[in-house]
Amino acid sequence: MNDIAIRIKGLVKKYADVVAVDGLDLEVERGECFGLLGPNGAGKTTTIEIMEGLNTPTAGTVEMLGRDWAHHGDELRARIGVALQETKLFDRLTVEETLRLFRTFYPSDRALEVETLLTELQLGDKRRAWVQKLSGGQRQRLAVALALVGDPDVLFLDEPTTGLDPQSRRALWDTVASLRSRGKTVVLTTHYMDEAEHLCDRVAIVDHGRRIALGTPAALIDDIGGHHLVELSSVPSLQAEVFTDLVGVRAVRASQRDRSEPQDGLVLSIDEPHVTLPALFQRLAERGAKPTRLVSRTATLDDVFLSLTGRTLRED
Predict the structure, then answer these.
(1) CATH number at residue 241
(2) Are residues 138 and 231 in the same domain?
(3) pTM of the predicted model, to two decimals?
(4) 155 lies in a domain?
């Protein structure tokens, strides 16, 4: 059995003079949660739309579950589920009526039972509520339930928790974890880096339509020089070389949030804060330096993207 759920080779999408996707190669394994990350305008939405069969490539190929959209469109539509960031539904239908309606779109022997979906998405107490009366989190859980009606082999979640409260976010995280445990493949886009690190087995970071990094969240973070960072602000008199020989320091870089901005401090990538911080304080005292801000924190995928591009993942 083929272990690859989605295979993309040399994907290109052009709009007039704009290249949205520029020779992208990706493979998504069966049963994994795969994150596609990048800033707005990076090409990830276009890539997702092509995967879903909603858009056509200018060049390159997309293979889904061993099939392609040109020859197996009906079969693939029956085997994928899509939950958009915002889903327009019938306001005057109840939650249960909406689920029953969508269930009629699939063969009865494949479609999941309405009661199963109500339970899994924690919507049982809202079964008789009109859609227009649902909160943002409840509407998003309903959208995911609708994407799951056909018991898809591949589920696409586009920014599924944007704007949700922490409790609703955690509920959707539990749903994704349950899907993974059942061997389903999930493709996720998100701007929440804690979400990607918690849910995704692997992530691809794209920028300007190209893949610039691929791997597990832990491996990508390790590639930038450590899982812990120390940020020093307002120390313009100190150069990176002052700290490179400190015990436990793996890398030192400028801390500006954008490469067009002036340097405002330094970021040290370290392995063990309890070892490096005492040595750092001693070095600062020796130099008579008093930073206005010193923060020790865990590195994130946002730091990975910043180190690669000079921008944060949440920048427009």
Answers:
(1) 3.30.70.100
(2) no
(3) 0.84
(4) yes
Q: Which of 84, 13, 1, 74 is nearest to 43 (CA)?
A: 13
Report the alpha-carbon distance of residue 148 to residue 145 in Å, rounded.
5
Based on the fold, state whether residues 46 and 152 are members of the same structural domain: yes
296: which 2 tokens? 């020790």
pLDDT in tens, the chain (316 residues): 469 999 999 999 999 889 999 999 999 999 999 999 988 888 888 999 999 999 999 999 999 999 999 999 999 999 999 998 778 899 999 999 999 999 999 988 889 999 999 998 889 999 999 999 998 888 988 999 999 999 999 999 988 888 788 888 888 888 888 888 888 999 999 888 889 989 999 999 998 899 999 999 989 988 876 678 899 886 666 788 889 999 999 888 877 554 444 456 888 988 889 999 999 999 999 988 888 888 988 888 888 877 777 666 554 4
* Sheet of strand 210-215, all strands in order from the earlier edge strand to the far edge: 80-83, 154-158, 185-189, 33-37, 202-207, 210-215
> Pairing state of beta strands 185-189 and 154-158?
parallel
